[in-house]
């Protein structure tokens, strides 16, 4: 096990250093932009998204009735995923005004409908559950 | 009511759903999606920027369509996995380092550094990839080169992370998922969390993969493209964006070989024997679509100027703006009878945005190398 771990660490460090080597000819502006985006990802996740999720879970676990906790937890995983995955298309920041073959769906409508579906499914699961759990 | 605000400690977080059993299982899935993404990414890099020791085959014609589709799908599917994985270990963020300068402190700092590299680089890759597929570039670096380089950092840091955690991973995967904690019937179990995460991954694929997988087109409401476009095909760069002006009767294609140059008008090209093939366009952004192309086989263009059918070609586009105005067509593609200088798409004369008057279409080529608005072909035996 010790030997395997040591070999893996050596391989991992070499692979990672290759990544840095591939950027050896980048100029200062490019490297600065990369560092800013790397740091922004960490700050947005560790500083905003993660604490927010934990705060929501903390409040929900105290406010929601016991019967709704399980459906609500599933709903958070599903709805959170849908929302984060859709962030870029919802932003509509890309594409070009003269190209209507990209970003050509009603993303906000889709997100609102999916949000409503998740909410409705959560409420439905909460109402149905007591009848199902004990015959 | 007095409320004391302080930096939380590891013990402050609930451990019912968190724990190595949860983390290791989500981690295994993430290692799988990241590996698929990394390998298909390296392949895409080779297809676009082929090293001299490698010859990309012309068959199967849909190879790049499949590998690049997998690249985008595995990357997108990694998003819920990474979020749940990071959530499951978030309390460790508040772990206090050893207070004394010691070997433990150095190891602690090194591990923190490797985790920061792993998490930072992983978020960077997923976010920059998602931004690239909608053509959003709010940065000063080259997307292609940086996305490639940072991928190596992700995989390197991931291998180090697996090595460091190997004993914990082994114990977690061989021990039962639900540990002896009091069973709470109202809340989610670890199994329930893993199933929800799996469901979220499946849903992510259904909601986005339609730009690659035609049967999902109507379901993928978050797909970047519906697959619609002029003549039934999406476009990346319009004629206007490429700086293509009016094409008039004076337009001619120049084909040269060993100092001999043949100039052909569009009527000349249309008078040559035409071939019709079904080939996909597959772009680095993961979208792809099949189409029927009609035009002159490239091997016939080579023989027209006295070059062998197995020649290399350098193609120059009329485009004045943007990258990929020139491309090289290696001999295995020129020789392949499916490779065309296309004049028609789905039975109609090429739309200006699809490369009118003529464009390249070859099997198993990234979209950016299917040069549009071709104006000059240099043939080398």
Give the topology, please.
The complex is a heterodimer of chains A (135) and B (381).
Chain A: H1 2-21, H2 28-63, H3 66-91, H4 107-133
Helix pairs in contact in A: 3-4
Chain B: H1 20-48, H2 63-89, H3 103-133, H4 143-174, H5 190-208, E1 253-257, E2 260-264, H6 266-271, E3 275-282, E4 288-297, H7 298-304, E5 312-317, E6 326-329, H8 331-335, E7 340-345, E8 348-349, E9 359-361, E10 374-380
Parallel strand pairs in B: 1-10
Antiparallel strand pairs in B: 1-2, 3-4, 4-7, 5-6, 5-10, 7-8, 7-9
Helix pairs in contact in B: 1-2, 1-4, 1-5, 2-3, 2-5, 3-4
Structural overview:
- The complex is a heterodimer of chains A (135) and B (381).
- In chain A, 81% of the residues lie in helices and 0% in strands.
- Chain A has 135 residues and is mainly alpha-helical.
- Chain A has two domains: 25-63; 66-135, no CATH class.
- In chain A, helix 3 (66-91) runs antiparallel to helix 4 (107-133).
- Chain B has two domains: 10-178 and 188-216, Fumarate Reductase Cytochrome B subunit; 253-380, Sulfite Oxidase, Chain A, domain 2 (Alpha-Beta Complex), CATH 3.90.420.10.
- Chain B has helices spanning 20-48, 63-89, 103-133, 143-174, 190-208, 266-271, 298-304, 331-335; strands spanning 253-257, 260-264, 275-282, 288-297, 312-317, 326-329, 340-345, 348-349, 359-361, 374-380.
- In chain B, the strands form two sheets. A five-stranded mixed beta sheet of chain B has the order 2-1-10-5-6. In chain B, strands 3, 4, 7, 8 and 9 form a five-stranded antiparallel beta sheet that branches.
- In chain B, strand 1 (253-257) and strand 2 form a beta hairpin.
- In chain B, helix 1 (20-48) runs antiparallel to helix 4 and helix 1 packs parallel to helix 5 (190-208).
- The termini of chain B are far apart.
